[in-house]
Amino acid sequence: MKWTKAKKKKIEDKGPPRRGLWFTRSTLSKAFALGGCALCAVVLASERKGIHSFLYESMMSASVRQKFLDGGGFCSRHFWMAKEIEEETWLRGSIAVAILCEDLTRQANAGLANVAVVEPNSRTTLFRHREVKAFVPGHSCMFCQDNADKETFLAEVLEELVEEPEFAKPLERNGLCIRHGQLSLQLWKDQAKRKQLFAQIEAQVSELSADLREFIRKYDYQYRDEPRGREQDSVLRALRFFVGPDPWGKRIRTESA
Ligand SMILES: [Zn+2]
Ligand SMILES: [Zn+2]
């Protein structure tokens, strides 16, 4: 597949200076080398790094801690990731997550008190009532926001980089996950590139769908003795396509080995 050839200088010359473009090039290049959606790989590595530095240092800053509280703490993904990172990193124990949780208990108490004063007959619409300030954990998780900013930036940079075979080839080989594929289609401005990306992701979905059907067919006892093929890892590929890689990784590596 040939992506539109354009002037190489375009990225550097276009618009306001892009932050650390050389770094993004190299990061994306390494992410493509891992296989799978490169944007997912970059985001996963960067959120883990971000959480580590949050626990190690930045959570002690009053403004950062306030941002954490304003977001209702972390979402499920990032809270569990924080706990995992804490356990991996501080083998002799750490109180970072304990401090964060203790902070949140005050918000939980406040939310609880707000909800408790609402009449029982309004219960069904409780969480939709603006005036009822229930505590919703991780409603504006700061790491989800960071991810969204990073994803947008990466998708925009990829539109430029895809003009180079170094990026076009692995993109064609690995594809993107559905979220990042759709995001790129929404952000890319070059019609020819959008068209090619759409065709590529559409082909990716068709192939995945056929592999899943084959996997399901071979589950039937009549066909179980047939030789196994590429359909065997289709469920893991489908999960990665829909929700990205397993953030904990270990289990997936074992299963797909
Ligand atoms: Zn992705
Ligand atoms: Zn989050």
Structure characterization notes:
The chain is mostly helical. The protein has one domain (18-256). It has 12 helices and no strands. The chain starts with 9 loop residues before the first helix and ends with a helix. One zinc ion is lined by residues 74-75, 77-78, 138, 141, 143-144.
Draw up the topology in text:
Blueprint: H1 10-13, H2 21-33, H3 38-56, H4 62-70, H5 76-89, H6 96-116, H7 142-161, H8 165-174, H9 178-187, H10 191-219, H11 234-243, H12 250-256
Helix pairs in contact: 2-3, 2-7, 2-8, 3-5, 3-7, 7-9, 9-10, 10-11
The structure holds zinc ion (ZN) (2 copies).
One zinc ion binds at residues 37, 39-40, 176-177, 179-180, 244.
Q: Notable features of this structure?
A:
globular, 12 helices, 257 residues, 65% helix, mainly alpha
Brief digest:
Helix content is 65%, strand content 0%.
Q: Largest beta sheet, briefly?
A: none
What is the mean predicted local confidence, pLDDT? 86
Number of domains: 1
Q: Mind telling me the C-alpha Rg?
A: 22 Å
Poorly predicted parts: 5-17, 252-257
Helix content: 55-70%
Order of helices and strands: HHHHHHHHHHHH
Q: Compounds present?
A: zinc ion
Terminal CA distance reads 30 Å
Shape: globular
Number of strands: 0
Query: Which structural category fits the helices and strands?
Result: mainly alpha
Report the sheet-strand fraction.
Answer: under 5%
Count the DSSP helices: 12
